[in-house]
Design the sequence.
DNA sequence: ATGTCTTTGTGAACGCGTGCACAAAGATGG
DNA sequence: CCATCTTTGTGCACGCGTTCACAAAGACAT
């Protein structure tokens, strides 16, 4: 639905590939650095190197935005910074709420980079009554009871979930019901949301496990290959050898597993 | 510029697709939850639903590991937990060092999930002399000067970088020189590493910016379309309207930009 | 103005990942 | 022992993303 092509034959169609969108912030960062060094223009080759991507890929990415380069010269840094910022929607202010002010939530709240990128921490929310009123990063923590009102009053459309896994879905449901349509989830859970709501997940544990996989591969598998198999259906095969004291989903959020 | 290729040249040894490897931790988490509820077997349909993926994809993923299912019945939960854990290398202990004990580093150190997944925080390292000896999460912070010795003594092969962007490459170089071959990078920088070293990046700012893009799209662009363009090469077009007090790369790490 | 040189923008080929659809395998019941 | 039913494992087709390679566009020098 609504995927109909616009009559406009303009090169700037609305179909920017997801993979390209994911790289735009990368380019923007590199361009911002160049801007601070007062570099007027960059070639696709230079910028690609700075962003760590292939130059052809970068040019193709930019081609989806339009023809902003000058052949023989390169791209105007300031102009491109503006275009990408606009495309990403960073020229406007995005109020954000962080739910779950544990270690990670506090770390996020303390991060100064929010404000400098169009994101503003509108509120910090936690379910612990003892946290209420206590300032974190200069912002007083508010109780979950007021979640709906906070969302509504501040016109929040982006929410960050940094709660334990057990609370994530419930918090998510309330955020969505209150009007949030984009969620950044740090809890180790698969969230179900209605159509029209975007969810992105940040999962440190998964990243570490992927690294472990490659690490194991690099170390060669002669030592652990063809190892003995546990009795097919015996108890607790292996893996989680220890620390089973609590359900896995009970952890704060940073390190889902 | 020795732009160390971070991409793997297709580790064709076992031939498990990268996309599959990235999903294995997801399956493992769902399986662990089932295991704790003493569920003996699951069908690909059920497990796929729990992991939030397509059942055909899940079956294909498992097919790369071998034929561990029983037709007409499903998969033995405990057995699969073991197989995936083994494949990911989680049956062995992985000593990990965290460099940069700021808000995020502390949050990571405090996370209890490390130990329960085969990962062990071997040391916390920070460049601030004032931090030295101060315990975080029960582990005394050590100074950067001892980095090499720490890596060596503990046989660390996985490092987590949670430093400001400005220090990341330098820390990375020292980690690699000391023997680390897998790095999880939280700093907003493109790290260059020699071949054979894996780098994975966690970048909250990018995630937020991607959400903002979709959010803007959802809101409809009738209000900001065809907007005025800034003088081609004028100063700071927009985007970074405020908070320029320091270079962007000066931020701790959680929120790269 | 003209030629040369640099760099963009993109057509086309290729490879990977995804999802469908179905045959084979095995459990279960009569 | 045979029929039926469930669920796996996978061949195949499709679409997206990546990369190559090159013609066109424009700057710059003469």
Sequence:
């Amino acid at each position: 639905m609504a995927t109909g092509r616009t009559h406009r034959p303009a090169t700037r169609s609305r179909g920017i590939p997801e993979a390209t969108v994911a790289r735009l912030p990368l380019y923007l960062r590199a361009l911002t650095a160049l801007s601070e060094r007062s570099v007027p223009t960059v070639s696709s080759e230079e910028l690609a190197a700075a962003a760590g991507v292939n130059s052809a890929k970068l040019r193709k990415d930019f081609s989806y935005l339009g023809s902003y380069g000058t052949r023989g010269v390169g791209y105007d840094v300031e102009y491109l910074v503006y275009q990408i910022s606009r495309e990403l929607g960073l020229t406007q202010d995005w109020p954000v709420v962080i739910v779950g002010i544990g270690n990670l939530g506090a770390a996020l709240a303390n991060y100064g980079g929010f404000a400098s990128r169009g994101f503003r921490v509108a509120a910090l929310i936690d379910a612990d009554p003892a946290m209420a009123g206590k300032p974190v990063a200069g912002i007083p923590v508010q109780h979950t009871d007021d979640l709906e009102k906070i969302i509504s009053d501040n016109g929040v459309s982006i929410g960050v979930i940094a709660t334990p896994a057990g609370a994530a879905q419930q918090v998510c449901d309330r955020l969505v019901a209150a009007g949030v349509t984009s969620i950044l989830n740090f809890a180790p859970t698969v969230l179900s949301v209605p159509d029209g709501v975007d969810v992105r997940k940040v999962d440190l544990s998964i990243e570490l496990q992927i690294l472990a996989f490659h690490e194991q591969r690099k170390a060669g598998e002669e030592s652990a290959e063809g190892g003995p198999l546990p009795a097919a259906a015996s108890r607790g095969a292996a893996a989680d050898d220890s620390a089973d004291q609590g359900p896995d989903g009970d952890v704060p959020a940073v390190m889902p597993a």
Observations:
- Chain A has a mean pLDDT of 84.
- Residues 43-45, 56, 59-60, 62-63, 67, 69-75 of chain A lie near DNA strand C (CB under 10 Å from a C1').
- Chain A has eight helices and ten strands.
